[in-house]
Sequence to fold (209 residues):
Amino acid sequence: MVRSKKIAGLALAAGLAAGGLTAGAAGAAGASSSSCGGSGSVTTVNGTLADGATYLLQCPPGAWNGTLYLYSHGYVAPGSANPAQDVGDPVTAAWMLGHGFALAGSSYASTGWAIAQALPDQINTLDAFGSLYGQPRTTVAWGHSLGGIITAGLLQDYPKRFNAALPMCGVLAGGATAGFKSWFRGLACQDVVWRSRRMLRKRWRRSSR
Fold:
C-alpha cells in the first residue's frame, strides 16, 4: 500500500510539473464524441489495434482533469498471457482515477523484448483515446522495467506527443548492457560458489585427519 501511494505520488508530480495543474483542475481537452469522466463510475474501454495488440482506456468517475497517463508495461515472457495494462497495480489505478486522471495502455503486439512493437502500439493507443474523448491537455508517459525503456523511446521518437515522462526501473542502458550485467553477476556468483566449495573441502580434509 505504501509503495503504491509513493508511485501514485510520483506519477501525480510528473503530471503537475508538466501541465501546471492542480489535482482538482478542470481539463481542457479537445472536442470529442464522448466525454471522459463525470459518469459517477469508472468508464473502461477495451479495443484491438490493427496489428492485434489490445488496448485499455479508463476515465475517472468524476470530472477529468485533462491529464492522461500512458502506461508501458514490463517484460512478458513469450507464451505468457499478455493483456493490455494501463497501470502497474490496482491500488495506484484507484487512487489516480479517484483524483481525476485518465489512464491508457496497450498489450503490445508481441511478448518478449517487444520495443519495436510497443512504440507504435502505444502511439496508436493515444490516437484511440483522442478519437473517443479528444486530445488531453497533458499527456504523461510512464512505465516499469522494460516499460521504462519504452517510455524513454516514446519521448525520443514522439517528443511532441508528451509533456512529461516517468520511466521507473527502466533498462535505459539498452538490452546488450543489461544482458552483460546479468552474465557478469551470474559469473560472479559462480565464482563465489566455487571458492566456497573449495574452502569447505579444505576444512573437511583438515578435520578428517
Q: What stands out?
A: The radius of gyration is 22 Å.
